[in-house]
Amino acid sequence: MPPTIEGYWNDLRSTKVWRSVFRSGTGTSTLHRALAVQQNVFLHLASVKMRRRSLAFSATWYLGTMSLATFLILTATGILLMLYYHPSVPQAYADMKDLQFVVSAGVFLRNLHRWSAHAMVFLVFAHMFKVFYRGAYRPPREFNWVIGVILLILTLFLSYTGYLLPWDQLAFWAITVGANIMSAVPVMGRKVRFLMLGGNTVNANALLRFYVLHCVILPLVAGLLIAIHFWRIRKDGGLHTGQVETPAGAPNE
Amino acid sequence: MSDQKPFQAAIESDSRKAPVRIAFVTRRTSPQVKAESDQYVMTWPEGIFRVLVVCEVLAIILVTMSLFWDAPLEGLADPMQTPNPAKAPWYFLGLQELLHYFPPVVGGVLIPTLVVLALVIIPYFNVNVEAEGLWLRNRGKRLRIFAAVVLALIVFLIVFEVWAVLAPTVLIAAAMLFAAREANNAGRFRRWLILRPLSFWIMTWFLASASLLTGIGTFFRGPGWSWVWPWKE
What is the DSSP letter of B227? Predict the structure, then answer.
């Protein structure tokens, strides 16, 4: 038999090293395809089989998938941007100028991060409305809907905290407007704003706090909740297809 | 569906009170009774492949945008120089637009909190889970409640001069009345509207209002939050 790409591919997959990394083994049988998902730490959040109807474009418009894709793009570009960024005043703004004029493809990197961020906010909103109009929030998926609402708020906070980091006029005043809204909270409004900004106005402390929130705390919490969100899809019986379903999980006492 | 059912179920169908349930299947009333046998496919490769294609297409779109459209960068932040108007990011401009009409406690705290709470509790209310067409039952009573609520809302919006919410409110209310009218030969769209539950109407009203507020805040507000036409100057 002449060598083919598929032949090389299969040879590679049957090597000792490949088999040591991937536990599912070679082959295209249903068993192997099931193992490919079940034996993978990331993929096992999904079920081994899916309803064909839930894969139709009209079922989801793939809005959740696209939200995840933007999150991954943002993580990748965000880590690269961190290599060129100091969360201090006024160095932060100088770093923006460096990205523009000194760093190779620096402008592209910042553009991709910013447009992906806007896209993520839009897609997460769209995802929520699509899920609502589909009726996919109904039991047994009610708690996954709640996680989704929390993820929406986290997305807004992620975008909002990132907005300050360039430390230009646009960033500074947008965050000032937002922080002033926060201070309208009855009784504890000013305290909340002080906690958020590390002062009474947007200053170097606020930049550092937003940086830590934006690069560490919020992405970690969001990542964790995204994992639970996906796992719950599997546990709640797969993607909603508009049928009457019996609730999953253990019965009440 | 406005056709009266040919009969009424006479047996208590509350499972907590009476564990006996009898289903009367009439034409076009209960499509879910028909059990469909779902076809299943393997997640790998069918599902994963589609997901990868979608991610790839999205990445291509975003990369292309990033090649041709630069992210804005203004001058160094200067606390002494307030731009006019100072605008929040676009997804908060609906909120900022609300602050133009209401005091900060209402527009900036009360309304957003209520919206988030309303979103969270949606799946925990049976009325949203059953999602029956709003006008299918007790039409007269529901019309009276509807009239009272919508009138109160419209008066409230006029008092605070919130034209940007008043417009979608009137439109959605008109659509609801259109759906509620007695009709024996309703067209396809009418029939679809008649089957919409209360949650559909509220969410659509919210979506329309939020979109309009955000659009106005983004494009039609200039110095001192005054009205400007984006195509002028």
Answer: B
Question: How far from A167 is each of A94, A95, A164, B62, CA to CA, in Å?
Answer: 9, 10, 6, 24
Cβ–Cβ below 8 Å for A145 and B203: no
- Chain A residues in contact with B120 by the CB 8 A cut-off are 146, 149
- Would the CA dihedral through B2, B26, B124, B12 be positive or negative? positive
For chain A, 253 residues long, the average pLDDT of each consecutive 10-residue run is 84 88 83 90 91 91 97 97 96 96 96 97 97 91 96 97 95 92 86 92 95 97 97 90 60 59
Q: Chain A window 22-41: which residues touch B at a Cβ cutoff of 8 Å? A: 30, 33-34, 36-37
- For chain A, count helices (H), then strands (E): 12, 1
| Two tokens, residue A15 | 């090597």
Residue B45, CA distances (Å) to A36, B42, B53 in order: 9, 6, 12
Give the nearest partner residue to A177 out of B40, B96, B128, using CB atoms: B96
Residue B51, token pair as written in the block: 């997901």
Contact indicator for A169, A91 with CB cutoff of 8 Å: no
Nearest Cα residue to A64 out of A177, A173, A148: A148
Q: Is A37's CB within 8 Å of B203's CB?
A: no
Interface contact A145-B123, CB threshold 8 A: yes
In chain A, domain spans: 56-235
- Write the pLDDT tens digit of every residue in B11-24: 555 656 655 666 66
Contact (CB<8Å) B44/A145: no
Nearest-5° Cα angle at A115, A109 to A120 = 120
pLDDT value for A216: 97
Q: What is the pLDDT of residue A11?
A: 86
Architecture of domain A56-235: Up-down Bundle (1.20)
Domain boundaries, chain B: 39-71, 85-225
Phi, psi of A128 (to 5 degrees): -65, -45
Using only C-alpha atoms, chain B has a radius of gyration, in whole angstroms, of: 24
**In this complex, is the C-beta atom of B53 within 8 Å of any C-beta atom belonging to chain A?**
no
DSSP B41: E
Residue A222 · residue A229 · CB < 8 Å: no
Count contacts between A and B (CB, < 8 Å).
198
